[in-house]
Amino acid sequence: MTPNEKLAAIRGLMKAQGIDAYIIPSSDPHISEYLPEHYKCMAWASGFTGSAGTLAITSAFAGLWTDSRYFVQASEQLAGSGYELMRLKVQHAPEYADWLAGHLPAGAVVAFDGMLTSVSLAKTVQDKLLSGGMEVRSNMDLLTPLWADRPALPSAPAYLLDAAITGESTSAKLQRLRDEMERHRVGTHFISSLDDIAWLFNIRGSDVACNPVVLAFALVTADTATLFVDGRKLTDTDRASLAASGVAVDDYGHAADALRGLSKDSVMLLDPRRTCFALYNMIPATAFVVEQTNPTTRFKAVKNDVEIAHTRQTMIKDGVALTKFFKWLEEAIDGGSITEISLAEQLRQFRAEQDGFVGESFDTIAGYKAHGALPHYKATPASDSVLRPDGLLLVDSGGQYRTGTTDITRVISLGNITAAERADYTLVLKGMIEGSTAVFPAGVRGYQIDAITRKPLWDHLRNYGHGTGHGVGFFLNVHEGPHTFNGAAIDVPVERGMITSIEPGLYREGSYGIRIENLVLSVDHTDTAFGSFMAFETLSYCYIDTRLIDRSLLDAKHIDWLNAYHKTVYEKLAPYLDQETRHWLAGKTAAIS
């Protein structure tokens, strides 16, 4: 069926069941950002393939609510689909609920699938609609009856990581979690988020593209731990290892039964933003539920010394692959046969040569000229551009290695660069340097780092619509919380051991885009009479194209930082490069005055 035909079929079911509006989020029962094919409902219904958005359908209107990262992509993919692009004013805000509340009469019935909606989001939507006198049904799955060729749930094997890689055994992690549960006076903890489960049980898989996770739920008490997972994914050896750590394995589909069977006086901890509403409603009504961020989310974000040491080595491997890639690209560009898709494939091959490489940490964003202005662009056969020795190329990419996760963005000149492009590039670089060199009091929040990074662009009346940085997992999701560097006043401090991206950008729609990104590690800096101060250690090793710099826009401290960074890049990578590539990198990392 075409999107129009699917929309008509959904409306047919809505009419038959007395539903006036139906909401389709981009999510799964684990409230994941990136989804298994089985749960790509938004893409199936509308044709929009972005990783963030919500569809709202009435008898006379159908809209997609998404943020500025996807405005251009959504406009193109929704053409002729029957859906209208609704531009979010605030990223991730449920503005569709306000729209429905303002356009539907009292008594209207609004429905959604509680398996695909978080507890916190469902409650927010309900509050907005119930206050308008509407009825809300949270258990309606209208897509399964229509989705005839829906992909099955993934069945690839899972595997356990040794504590020599993770730096902490499963039993030790469970004890830390139980100590935190005791501190909060809860006896039971239910975990839905896949990266939290992967971290806690030192388990990895391939159920979600680019994210080494396995579909699972977990239930932890003071003396038991149950992992709900498709048992066929585990070897007998892995089962025995989990059992030795005090972990029982039960079927993935039994998690709901376990919640229904909880004692009526249970005190349960769960994360309302990472638990689906349908499972939440299976907890006995008399149980007391403590709603807060999973303790493992913070534990996971603060890397231990073993993870940090592995990550530093992984960044060298990734830098070697990137150096070989950019050298290859520079030498091959005149041939006229390189496209956005083919260069992404070549970059993956260079990474695959590195020891421990598992896969990409996200689909490579290779945006040539105007495509670079689309922050989450992914080339398709229809959009694939041939590269020429002219203009800017943005490459945002990352790798999953057994010893860490990488994420890095570089913009390079292919030739004939304008003064405007140089100015924009230099201001973005200046912002990245300001963020990377920030020294700040312990306890600072991410929005303060975000402002420090943006100021060089603000000073020239420029800005960008996405966040400045996100947490990065250890051989886990490339996007992880609880901290983030963006404008939202999220009350999570920047802590020692957190790995975060710093990636300011600037986008000229229809012309070009610029984003420069490194990963940084939060470290202790010094103690003073005014308290403890922290700083960042830059982890990424890849040259920054100095041909694009307008030096008049940089102060001496920015040039000094860049020269020192390039010296480090060369020293870290040169031992792993052949003589010709070392010579090439020496030119790219040469000091500027």
From TrEMBL:
Boundaries of every Peptidase M24 domain copy: 311-521
Annotated GO MF terms: metal ion binding; metalloaminopeptidase activity
Pfam families to which the protein is assigned, alphabetical: Creatinase_N, Creatinase_N_2, Peptidase_M24, Peptidase_M24_C
CDD domains: APP (cd01085)
Any coiled-coil regions, as ranges: none
Keyword Repeat set for record: no
GO cellular component: cytoplasm
Domain Peptidase M24 C-terminal: 533-592
The keyword Protease is annotated on this UniProt entry: yes
Regions crossing the membrane: none
Domain Creatinase N-terminal: 7-129
Record-linked SUPFAM superfamilies: Creatinase/aminopeptidase, Creatinase/prolidase N-terminal domain
Keywords, sorted A to Z: Aminopeptidase, Hydrolase, Metal-binding, Protease
Family according to the record: Belongs to the peptidase M24B family.
The protein's name: Xaa-Pro aminopeptidase
Provenance organism: Parapedobacter luteus
